[in-house]
Amino acid sequence: KGTLYLVPTPIGNLEDMTFRAVKTLKNVDLIAAEDTRNTQKLLNHFEIDTKQISFHEHNTQQRLPQLLEKLQSGQSIAQVSDAGMPSISDPGKELVAACISADIPVVPLPGPNAGLTALIASGIEPQPFLFYGFLPRKKSEQRQALQNLKNETATMIFYESPFRIEDTLQNMAQVFESKRQVVVARELTKKFEEFIRSDLGSINEELTQHVLKGEFVLIVAGADGEMAPVQLSDAQIIAAIQAEID
Ligand code: SAM
User: Fold this and answer.
1) What is the pTM of this model?
2) Is 27's C-beta closer than 6 angstroms to any atom of ligand 1?
3) Which of 85, 216, 220 gets mutated to test ligand 1 (max ligand atoms within 8 A of its CB)?
4) pLDDT tens-digit series, residues 84-104
5) For residues 59, 65, 66 and 68, what is the CA-based torsion angle, rounded to 10 degrees?
6) Cα-to-centroid distance, 114 and ligand 1 (Å)
7) For 85-124, b where at least 16 C-beta lie within 10 A, e where not — what string?
8) Fewest C-beta in 10 Å: which of 42, 117, 157, 166?
9) Quick check: CB of 13 below 6 Å from ligand 1?
10) Which value does ipTM take for this structure?
């Protein structure tokens, strides 16, 4: 039997491709890509000439038996999405489940992911966290989803498109408490990377000062999830100043 490798790809900065990801994409028999044209650019950059097959949400059911057959016959396959980790708000989970059922080894590679990258620099309590991904687009469904999260104490990670970000934040401000901390992380790993840190009551006002283009992650504190401000004693501050002088 072959092996299914799950290979994360950069979320904007090609230098975030790992050595192991390049090596794996070179060594497998086939790459199952969400968008083969998009992945071809990555393959060209890293001089990888492995053959690709498209694998996305619209052809999953048709592709699953074909990919399983190849794996059963000993071929190894790397699955990639357009950016970041496969299966995380991206295609992949059905193939993973099918491989597990068929006793085909599944090997995940660590690598870029927008949600965790935003979380670690947010300044909001990183644990526990709930990765939500995309909220429903329709207003009534989105509000219902937010209602269901109202008492969630974990920090929440959402993906959102630039066209809906203000509406979504407004809905959050109305459903959650407006004093909750929120961080809008824009264009992570890219030239215009930016973190806008505020609370739900003021974030939209704050956003009027910023360009709302590109890709966004929203990090929202959980219910009563305020992180205690860092308190330094006078003695610690004096010691730090003293250390600078010495
Ligand atoms: N599989 C990806 C991952 O592991 O993060 C997520 C793919 S999902 C289809 C795309 C969404 O991820 C975007 O709409 C945005 O919310 C977020 N995203 C991806 N790249 C980003 C970046 N460079 N900066 C901010 N958000 C990003």
Assistant:
1) 0.92
2) no
3) 216
4) 999 999 999 999 999 999 999
5) 120
6) 5
7) bbbbbbbbeebbebbeeeebebebbebbbbbbbbbeebeb
8) 166
9) no
10) 0.99
